[in-house]
């Protein structure tokens, strides 16, 4: 496989590759471009911009926006939904770091 094709194939597996236009992202989520702009303005996701200035979204960002949509559909204001998701992400990161530190500490204890 030529290097160019390998690079393209790698992008298909990259969760952070900005593969979706705003219109396509809205279609996939069953929402509107205005909703995507709102979650962007709230700071939940920051789409990359194409050379022409168009927003491009990754699969990771679409999953995050989908979670926000679930909360909004349940009656949560969009700003609150974005804050909840941000706090959930921070908690997940802290729990992961705590697990890693415990494993490292347990490994040191086993070596002594």
Structure description:
This protein is mostly helical and 112 residues long. It has one domain (3-111): Multidrug-efflux Transporter Regulator, Chain: A, Domain 2, CATH 1.10.1660.10. The protein contains five helices and three strands; from the N terminus they run αβααββαα. It has helices at 3-13, 22-29, 33-41, 59-73, 78-111, and strands spanning 20-21, 48-49, 55-57. It has a three-stranded antiparallel beta sheet with strand order 1-3-2. It is extended and about 60 Å long.
Rounded mean pLDDT is 90
Number of helices: 5
Oligomer: single chain
Beta content comes to 5-15%
Q: Segments where pLDDT lies below 50 for 5+ residues?
A: none
Element string (H = helix, E = strand) = HEHHEEHH
Major β-sheet strand ordering: 1-3-2
What is the CATH topology?
Multidrug-efflux Transporter Regulator, Chain: A, Domain 2
- Could you give the distance between the termini? 49 Å
Largest sheet: 3 strands, antiparallel
Number of E-type strands: 3
The level of helicity is: 55-70%
List the helices and strands and how they pair.
Layout: H1 3-13, E1 20-21, H2 22-29, H3 33-41, E2 48-49, E3 55-57, H4 59-73, H5 78-111
Antiparallel strand pairs: 1-3, 2-3
Helix pairs in contact: 4-5
Short description:
By secondary structure, the protein is mainly α. The protein is built from 5 helices and 3 strands.
Main attributes?
mainly alpha, Multidrug-efflux Transporter Regulator, Chain: A, Domain 2, 3 strands, 3-stranded antiparallel beta sheet, 112 residues
């Amino acid at each position: 496989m030529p290097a160019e094709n390998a690079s393209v194939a790698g992008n298909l597996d990259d969760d952070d590759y900005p593969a979706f236009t705003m219109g396509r992202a809205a279609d996939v989520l069953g929402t509107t471009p205005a909703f995507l702009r709102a979650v962007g303005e709230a700071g939940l996701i920051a789409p990359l911009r194409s050379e022409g200035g168009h927003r491009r979204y990754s699969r990771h960002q679409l999953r995050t926006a989908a979670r926000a949509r679930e909360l909004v559909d349940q009656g949560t204001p969009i700003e609150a939904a974005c804050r909840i998701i941000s706090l959930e992400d921070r908690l997940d990161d802290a729990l992961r770091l705590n697990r890693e530190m415990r494993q490292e500490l347990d490994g040191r204890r086993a070596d002594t």
